[in-house]
Amino acid sequence: MINRIKKRIPKTLRKRFKRILIKPLALWYRKDLVALATLFETDKHGFHNYMPVYHNHFSHYRKQKINLLEIGVGGFEDPEKGGHSLRMWKVYFRKANIYAIDIVDKSSIQEKRIKIFKGSQADPDFLKQTINSIGSIDLVIDDGSHLNEHVIKSFKILFPLLNSGGIYVIEDTQTAYWSSLGGGHPSDHALQTSMNYFKYLIDGLNYKEFKWDYEPTYMDKNIDSIHFYHNLIFIYKK
Predict the structure, then answer these.
(1) Can you spell out the DSSP letters for 196-218?
(2) First and final C-alpha spacing in the chain
(3) Is 55 a catalytic residue?
(4) Of the candidates 38, 52, 86, 158, which lies 20 to 30 Å from 125 by C-alpha distance?
(5) CB distance 24 to 79 below 8 Å
(6) Model confidence over 192-222: pLDDT tens digits?
(7) DSSP assignment, residue 117?
(8) 3-state secondary structure of 76
(9) What is d(CA 72, CA 144) in angstroms, rounded to the nearest whole number?
(10) Contact 129, 123 (CB under 8 A)
(11) How many whole angstroms separate alpha carbon 120 and alpha carbon 145?
C-alpha cells in the first residue's frame, strides 16, 4: 500500500511528501516492521527479508526504554545520506534512544533520539568510549563494513559491554563466503570467517556437559542462545 501511494506522487514532490506524510504514516504502521522498512526505504526489507525475523526477536522491546546501537548508517561516503533504518527503529521503539557509528561523519542526519558517532567498528578504544558516552546498550546491530575481521572484532569488544538479557545481531553474513571481504569456503574451519567463528561458539552453550578439563570462556558463560537465519545471526546474552 505504501509503495502504491508513493508511486502516485511526482518525483519533484516526493521530498515534500515525505516531510508532510511520513510521520502520520509511520505512526499508523509503527507496529509493522515490514511496512516501516518500506516507508523508510531501508534495504533490511525488499533487498533482504530481515523484518519478520527482527519482529520475532525485538517485538517485546517495542515499548521499553532501551538503547539501541547500530553499526553502519548507510549512504556510503555522502555525509548527508543514510539513516533509513535508524529512523525506522526510532518509530518502532517509541521510547528508545537510537545510536549509530559510521566511519563517515553522519552528524548532519541526526535528529531527536538519534545520535551518530564517527569512528571505526574495528577500533577498540572508539567502541569503548562510545559505550561510555551512551551509558549502556540493550541491542546491537552490526550492519557495518561486513569485513569478517571487523565483524568478529566488534563482537568481541561489544558483547561484553551489552546489558544482561540483551541481543547482538549480525547482518549480511553471506560475506563469510566472499574472499574479497575475508571470507572463504565453509569447509575451511579457520575462525577468521564470521560464520565459522559463531558456529564455533555453539559448543560453548553446552560447556557444563564436557567430560574433560575445560576452562569456560567469557562467551561460554554469557551467551544464552544463538539463532541462525539466512544471512542473519542473533546472539542472546544471559
Answers:
(1) HHHHHHHGGGGGGG-SS-----H
(2) 40
(3) no
(4) 86
(5) no
(6) 899 999 999 999 999 999 999 999 999 999 9
(7) E
(8) coil
(9) 4
(10) no
(11) 9
